[in-house]
Amino acid sequence: MVIWNGLELEQIGIVASRSRETDAECILLEGKEKEVTSETLVLVDNRNGNKILAVCRGGVGYNDNLKIDYYNPGVAYARSGRGPSTAKEFFSFKLVVIGDVTDGEVKQNKTIIAPASLVYKFKGDSNPMKLFGNIKNVIGYYALGAPLWKVPTLTEYIPHHIGVFGVTGSGKSFLCRYELIPLLRRAGYDVLIFDWKGSDYAPFYPDSVINMGDIKLDEASIFGYLAERLDKFGGGRIAETLLRYLEEALSEGSWRGSDPTETKSRLLAAVERNIWGENTDRSGNLNEWGQRYLRRARIYFERLRPEDIKPVMGEMSASEIIDMLRRKKTLVIDLSYGSKEQKLSIFLSIARWLKGLMEEKNRLNIAVVVDEAPQYCPWNPRGIEEETTRQIIGLAALGRSYGLSLVLISQGIAGEIGINAAVRRNLNTLFIGRIHPLDAQEAERFFATSWISADSLLRLPEGHFYMVGKMNPSPVPLLVSFEIEEREKIGFGRG
Ligand SMILES: Nc1ncnc2c1ncn2[C@@H]1O[C@H](COP(=O)(O)OP(=O)(O)OP(=O)(O)O)[C@@H](O)[C@H]1O
Ligand SMILES: [Mg+2]
Questions:
Q1: pLDDT at residue 365 in the model
Q2: Distance 173 CA to ligand 1 centre (A)
Q3: What is the C-alpha to C-alpha distance for residues 27 and 61, in angstroms, rounded to an integer?
Q4: Distance, CA 190 to ligand 2 centroid (Å)?
Q5: Where are the domains of the chain?
Q6: Ligand 1 test: best mutation among 174, 411, 464, most atoms within 8 Å of CB?
Q7: What is the dihedral of CA 164, 166, 169, 172, to 10 degrees?
Q8: Fold exhibited by the domain 150-217+315-488
Q9: Closest residue (by CA) to atom 24 of ligand 1?
Q10: What per-residue confidence (pLDDT) applies to 492?
């Protein structure tokens, strides 16, 4: 055993030829193949003078007696069911270099790793994470290490936005609840969570939940929402004019009643006033166009139910919500019970307010967590999604300068199951858990030079995520996991 820098090390192999400065093969000492696995962290004592932290990936087993590219005695033995010799057997791992750690911080390694350099693993109690230097904030722990191997994260990159990806049940919401949200809080951000299903976050912050029905929509959101609910009056020229009348009616402002039924009739009355205002003949009667407008308006208003109207009657404004967020520090907007347009209208109302604050050059220190992100910014947005996608892109751009961080959570990365490509480009740090086979190609791009195959991404257990991007102090993705409370493990979870 060797001690370096207070860390207990145990030799597991030596560097093979050919080696480079970014990676090398390691031949394992006999028996170590049972202890060393992919993602094991190792230290290379480079004979060329420095110490290099690396991670084992892409393991291979060799046995000359069992080569199958031609018929040979080994193959003959195997065929006849007799055991061939394992004398010529050995194992190797690809060492993917994280960096030069000689001086107590991670630097890019520029020295060629000398073949025959010794390779060590870290013994249980010694924590290699301290080799990343003095980094204040941590997330989870290194999945192939001990729970005390907390993974350092660079919180200054939080406003460069975060994506969390993984198939359903891969642990995205748990990662957010147990690790990301606490990390954001520690880094000084107030966290505003849009809980699409109302079950992932709202029950866990019982004193800090706002129900969607209580929220006052801004004028543009009310118009967008009602237009969708009214099926845009069916389309065509008549509908276009009617939408203008509706917009004017809303901006007149006297349409709010004491209940949804009264509100609905006031709104219709205001639209009808606008129809009368522009479509009378010389004797003051409604002309032919006016009658068409009136008929169409009434047909579509007839279909509005009280629960369609309710969402426009909330009283709590976006500015009051942000005040509440400042007091509570973490605030959940419960979006269950509502149509998609209702949910997205609420998001838009708040997003526009935040955008306004940033345009006035306020530094926000707010993180906006959006679970089920493809509902807001799908790959091919339609209707109200076009506006939410646009707003998210706008928030992302301003957020980098004014301390607004977007945390988008999605089952898929790209294509039909993923999020909009223009939005995705704005997410600098990614947590990638078990992916969907449709995403295999997309995911491999993030891991191109780090020897993580789509195969292994398709098989990650729940609660395991590769951290990729600027918040990761390592240039290669690190596998992060985290502990959850016993009662929340499968079988003991919420019913
Ligand atoms: N770190 C962990 N360790 C052990 N089990 C975990 C861990 N994280 C999550 N799980 C298990 O995985 C289950 C699913 O997690 P979660 O609800 O976060 O998935 P999700 O990715 O958000 O799924 P969906 O896309 O359906 O919302 C949890 O109920 C929990 O039992
Ligand atoms: Mg979830």
A1: 97
A2: 6
A3: 10
A4: 21
A5: 2-132, 150-217+315-488, 219-312
A6: 174
A7: -10
A8: Rossmann fold (3.40.50)
A9: 168
A10: 46
